[in-house]
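Field: COMPLEX_INPUT
Field: COMPONENT_COUNT = two
Field: RESIDUE_TOTAL = 533
Field: MODE = joint
Values follow.
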Amino acid sequence: MKYLLLIYHNPGTRQIWEAFSAVQQAEGLAAYAALNEELAASGELIVSEALAEPQLARRVSVQDGRTVSSDGPFAEVKEHLAGIYLVECDSMERAVEIAARIPEATVAQIEVRPVMTYSGLEM
Amino acid sequence: MTATDRAPTGEPRLEDLLRDLAPQVLGTLVRRHGDFDACEDALQEALLAAVDQWPRQGVPRNPKGWLVTVATRRMIEMWRSESARRHREEVAVLAVQPTSAAPTERDSLTLFILCCHPSLSPVSQVALTLRAVGGLTTAEIARALLVPEATMGQRISRAKQTITAAGARFELPPPAELPSRIATVERVLYLIFNEGYVASSGPSLLRVDLSNEAIRLTRQLRAQLPDDTEAAGLLALMLLTDARRQARTGPDGTLVPLAEQDRSLWDADRIAEGGALLTTALTREPIGPYQLQAAIAAVHDEAARAEDTDWTQILGLYGLLETIAPGPMVTLNRIVASAMVNGPQIGLQQLDDAEADHALAVHHRAIAVRAHLLEIAGDREAAERAYRLAARRTLSVPERRYLESRAARA
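Field: COMPLEX_OUTPUT
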């Protein structure tokens, strides 16, 4: 089963990060490197990416066949997606275990979403 | 190997020949040179060279010997460039520890057990088995399992490093460990089979058929373990399940439930072969979960019409299965059988009891079973609600489409 792990930041997350000492920040980054290494070794990691600031996002829609896009910042957003992991593992329990290892789990929310499959069982 | 595992052409295709030879060549290489990781890489290159050259130059008289020679040459090249880089040619050559010179009949089993090493996660066991025993390329495995090729390449190379670091050797484990290691191999093969159990069409034409691949590999395993009743049971289960493949999906790719399948589309050869295997296996002890599941599949396959199904026998078999290998899915299936024997009200009552005991209540399959039983009981409104809820809860796209169509019909 594949699971998408969504790392959500809120306005306080960056302040907490910035208040960290250089040593604490280095520990956080080392924890990330260790997690990525472990997931690559177990074969469970498909992809992990950090996302740029939401101010750099554009919102796109198509209206009457015309593409309309608008620039950020989008003031109404209380939390934003800051990064993702796509992993393949045995169970939701294992996916939750991986999510808890993401350093931001202590200061932000990680959402674990199962990915739909194309195999199905006879009923 | 029967014709039905093959492409519908008369002669075995080149890929089939290569895939059959792959584990034999790998066994020979590892016996001669040690270093499973390097041998496996060299084999991949030899297979790619064969795919490139054989169609133009013809299949060599001794294809296995050709592959061994090309792979060995490739390994020597790799060692040379590696050692040139590291300036330690002698060390690199000495690090290779051959196990023994002559290949043995157990090589294929040893390879299965090595690829399903307990230090690996199931996703890595599946990938390594498909490549090292199945002889599939990284690209084919990646496409079949719907992950990027780079991810699959990394998964395979890390898996090889992991088993090397865990001290795995190319030899059979001690007798006391053997049964649990074989059970892991069987579980990995069943995982591969179920991965191939896809209902979607279109892009699947470009994909390796994992169900056929699992059947092919399980035949190899069974040939190595003629006295293992569960290896026979697993092969029978796959054949008896795969027999219904053509009937299982409609022209638009939607799932067709067992009760509504066109049984003339079922593969009689598969049913006969699976049935014969099972009959022999069931005369010997011990009787395990694969044999029981195969027996249940056989009872379904024996019924000429859905209404001829011997549900009493199926109920008895699920009762046995629940005793030796309990699990929520077994309980659900036993309840369905019970409803078919004793009526939907009894089934619904048992479902209530089971949901109180297990964490079943939130599972989409439990909701789908409830919907089905409500439909049989004539409570269309409640059935529709349950089908809709199950459709929202499933993780499978084809199952969701099926459940939505049942809701619309209820």
